[in-house]
Amino acid sequence: MTVSTPAPPDLLSPAHVADPWPGLAVLRDHYPVHFDEGLGVWLISRYDDVRRLASLDIGDLLQELIGQYLGDAQAFFAMDGLDHRRRRALIAPVFARPSVQRFADQVDRHARALLDPIFERERQAVRAGERDRAEIDFVTEFTASFSANVMIQILDLPIPDHSRMTSWFSAWINAEGNISRDPQIIAAAQQAKDEFGEIILPVIRERRSGTGDDLISKLCRAELDGMRMSDGEIQSFVATMFLAGGETTDHQLGWAMYELASDPRIQQELAAEPELMTNLLAESMRYHAIIPFGSRLAPADFEVGGVAIEEGAQLAVMYSAANHDPRRFENPDTFDIHRTDVDPKKAFNGAAQHMGFGSGPHFCIGSHLTKAEMETALRVFLEHARDVRIADDANPAPDPASPFVRSLASLKLSFELV
């Protein structure tokens, strides 16, 4: 009897976006180094290979795809080598754990400002007999605004129209995946840069000579060996903060709540041992990698898994596939806050075993802020909610319109008010 080899998955298909794990297993098992003709990239899917290649230089690829649409300077995340190390050393103190802790009260305040009116609304509805249990769409009513509002507060920016911000996020994310160079996507990304620049550049210029304690003022004053960031670099970095600290933290938080609401045992354990929150968040970063892959350029001719790669070839180092590789993680398709192959104490720094923040020199510089936002949001929510469940009429699923960012468009919950 002949067993046929399954075909490689179509990464952009709605079926794969909805349930990527079977297709990623096919890649790891049968095509660990695979050239995707449609995307024009090499897909690298096994953990050890992804971990190694994540340390490669990014080259000009990300600057061309998205960096040029964030500001009139090379984006920090699109830099390599000495330029990247110097900019990272310049910025890192602003995002170190002690610095992030200074924003704890602001993060808590924003969580309560959004959630308290919802809790009060639901108390009145339950008292009036309109429903037996409280309800919330955790994504549309909370996460979609929460992380962006935190960014606005710690940057001390005028609050733009939320729909306008959403259009910027969408334009930039689409540009990052615009391998085919669709002119409409390019035009939308350019418009987003122009609109964002109209808001942010006057603020940067005003704060150059100020003594404010907000992050933009700190970035304006930051200096290393006589080097400071230009206005264009700060604009680009602030746009990156909105995109990574607002948009992707929003999605990661949605998935963490999804797992919490799906498993009463996790809620019971958290109630008994609140410190397990870090375990929950660490496992969510592994299981639900919001950014499925990172782009790299082959710096020279070399081999991966016995396959020859030519210099200049585009590589997709597949974080999601690596995070579910059974060669590295036991029962990787099981969500387990007690797993021993992910150390929660390392999960939010450069020693993390998971790939939810990338890996190597480009490990996410805002990881501590992401943790603080998610931890605070869930803690505040659980102060007022117990027996949290996915609502009976809900069908939460990854947004099929967003293949390059794993996100939930909606997460309807029901719960008992405390």
From TrEMBL:
Annotated family: Belongs to the cytochrome P450 family.
Protein name: Cytochrome P450
Keywords: Heme, Iron, Metal-binding, Monooxygenase, Oxidoreductase
Organism encoding this protein: Pseudonocardia kongjuensis
Lineage: superkingdom: Bacteria
Cross-referenced Pfam families: p450 (PF00067)
